[in-house]
Amino acid sequence: MATCNESSSIRRKLALIIGNGNYSRPQNRLTHPVMNANDLCDSLKKINFNVTTVIDLVKQEMLKRITEFSKAISDGDLILFYFSGHGYHVNGENYMIPIDDDNIKADCDFEDFAVNFQRTL
Fold this sequence. Notes:
three-stranded antiparallel β-sheet, Rossmann fold, 31% helix, 25% strand, 4 helices, alpha/beta
């Protein structure tokens, strides 16, 4: 249960939301990530989060947005990072799949062509 002292120590509420649905491979396309991202954005804004929502990102853009978000975080900030799209677990690592997924053909491709979740934020 939060007390007044705990709540007052939060400086800012920041959120980064990524919704990837329009994948390069037609069979991988998803219809709900954009809706999920926009719905969460609306909900977070109602409770005074400063929200950045980005849709259908390639790997380099995902990394850029995550890095920018990470650099904006200060001590005391309440943060939320949300990804809606394809993910994959291989060799003990979790990967978020960017929309330029056509280079991922085998487990060994994830390190080069996907975003390692454990190495973000």
